[in-house]
Specification:
The complex is a heterodimer. By secondary structure, chain A is mostly helical. Chain A is built from four helices and no strands. In chain B, helix 3 links the parallel strand 5 and strand 6. Classes of the chains: A mainly alpha, B alpha/beta. At the A-B interface, helix 2, helix 3 and helix 4 of A face helix 4, helix 5, helix 6, helix 9 and helix 11 of B. Chain A: This is Iron hydrogenase.
Chain lengths: ~110, ~400
């Protein structure tokens, strides 16, 4: 009779309430840690874009001139060579045309 | 005769997925503005090159670094720098100066204009700031907008189409050309700053540098992969055409001979053992390094519009704008809109200009386009940039590993 296997193995395994709570807490903590890490990473995932944009706005703030038409090099370009915006030379050199790419063949 | 979306001579197949590295995780799909990436989940993905814009957003967001560029001009540039007969002109895009420092241990977004000039000067480049060309772009594109606005208000026949789109972003231009060619009349005909810079360097610049135009080699340093395709467009040899008309007879050359991404420029400097972080600042060597604050903000979403408004205000009202910071078009919202009411001296009446700014194009542009097709668009002027955040987040920039490829840039 003693050789007969018990019907349920669970009888052999005993976990105190205290131990159960401790293991449970450790389990929840390992779950929660990456969640915090993950949401932090999520919240900061655009920071590099914002930092680079901020760098450009800083460049704007420290610029001697902040509007294109006040750039004296631009004035010089038009006076010595380019003529005027939308002028003949501008049309030839600074403007372009676009291509309907649904009609191209190779 | 098969259908293609490329003109003869254009770079095709710039962005490619390496089959041995692709895990089929699908992370790239949400970054592709044209749904050009094919392949079942778990299987190796491929790119439909006819649909691809070359924007490379998949490349910088692939968690497995499985996506690469197939074209690099790095070796050509190294050889040209060593060639005593060639003057190499470095055209520096706005967004490069706030990102290249990251490759040399400097902080995110650190502004390093002087050091970058210094490092490139040491490498043998003439300094041509693309921001100067951006200022020229504003003069041309802004004048074009005012021209179209006036013609429309006066109901002139053949008045240009409104809303007018900006045309600086090569991914956006190629998108419109492949997907909505019927809207091409809405694009500003002004060239992008890169192409203006190349053309000016080889025409007016040839006088400034006192060098034959075919002995000038223009290298654009860009935050962008798609700019490589743009530079290869066959029509972009206008400096050569100009000099042909002036009687010169040499084989054709492009306005922009080579494009290096920000990453490739940092590779070049490292190859030449130039440490940008410890380089003495340099001011530039010609008037081409002179630029305005409006030119520099071209590199971020909203910047082109803000720069255009500043100049349009002056042209329309004959007075400088009082508040230079036009904050309504700043920030990372997908579509930003604003309106400005001005007294138009030429028309002798008030005009209200409605503008919109779109970035992260794949997620935001279609409703705007549909409104225009339906004839219900409220806008007069629309800035479009393909990449989330604008050029500062272009695919040529240093890859920031804090970005999260699996979720998307802007969620």
């Amino acid at each position: 009779m003693m050789d007969k296997k018990p019907l349920f193995e669970e009888d052999k395994f005993f976990l105190s309430r205290r131990k159960f709570m401790a293991i449970g807490a450790a389990f929840v903590a390992t779950l929660a840690l990456p969640v915090a890490w993950f949401s932090n990473k999520l919240a900061r995932r655009n920071d590099y874009i914002k930092a680079r944009s901020a760098g450009l706005y800083q460049d704007d703030m420290i610029a001697k001139q902040r509007v294109s038409h006040a750039n004296s090099a631009v004035e010089k370009y038009y006076a010595e060579f380019g003529g005027e915006p939308l002028g003949h030379k501008s049309h030839d050199l600074l403007h372009t045309h676009f291509v309907d790419r649904t009609k191209l063949k190779s | 005769m098969t259908q293609t979306t490329y003109q003869p001579g254009e770079i095709k197949g710039l962005i490619e997925i390496e089959a041995s590295k692709c895990k089929g995780c699908d992370a790239c799909l949400k970054f592709c503005p044209t749904h050009a990436i094919e392949g079942a989940s778990g299987a190796v993905h491929t790119i439909d090159q006819e649909k691809c814009l070359g924007c490379g957003q998949c490349l910088i967001n692939c968690p497995f670094s499985a996506i690469k560029e197939t074209h690099s001009a790095l070796e050509t540039v190294i050889n040209k720098l060593a060639d005593k007969d060639t003057k190499v002109v470095g055209i520096i895009a706005p967004a490069v100066r706030v990102a290249i420092g990251e490759e040399f241990g400097l902080g995110k977004g650190e502004l390093v204009t002087g050091k970058l000039y210094g490092a490139m000067h040491q490498a043998g480049f003439k300094i041509f700031d693309c921001n100067f060309a951006a200022d020229l772009t504003i003069m041309e594109e802004g004048s074009e907008f005012i021209h179209r606005l006036h013609a429309n208000v006066k109901n002139e026949p053949n008045a240009g189409a409104l809303p007018q789109f900006t045309s600086c972003c090569p991914g956006w231009v190629r998108y419109l050309e492949t997907d909505h060619p019927e809207l091409l009349p809405h694009l500003s005909t002004a060239k992008s700053p890169q192409q203006i810079a190349g053309t000016v360097a080889k025409t007016y610049g040839a006088k400034v540098y006192d060098t034959k135009p075919d002995k000038l080699f223009t290298v654009a340093v860009m935050p962008c992969t798609s700019k490589k395709i743009e530079a290869s467009r066959p029509e972009f040899n206008s400096a050569w055409q100009y000099h042909q008309q002036q009687g010169q007879d040499v084989p054709s050359y492009q306005d922009v001979d080579a494009v290096l991404t920000t990453r490739e420029m940092s590779q070049l400097l490292k190859h030449l053992e130039i440490d940008l972080a410890n380089t003495q600042p340099f001011d530039g060597d010609s008037l081409f390094s002179q630029y305005s604050g409006a030119g520099t903000i071209f590199g971020t979403t909203g910047g082109v519009m803000e720069a255009a408004i500043r100049t349009a205000h002056k042209v329309i009202t004959d007075e400088e704008i009082a508040q230079l910071d036009f904050t309504a078009v700043r920030g990372l919202e997908g579509v930003k809109e604003a309106s400005v009411t001005l007294f138009d001296k030429a028309l002798d009446q008030e005009v209200t200009i409605k503008v919109a700014v779109v970035h992260d194009m794949g997620h935001n542009i279609e409703p705007i386009i549909n409104d225009i097709i339906a004839g219900t668009s409220p806008y007069h002027f629309i800035e479009v940039m393909n990449c989330a955040g604008g050029c500062v987040n272009g695919a040529g920039q240093p890859i920031d590993t804090s970005g999260s490829g699996w979720i998307g840039n802007l969620g």
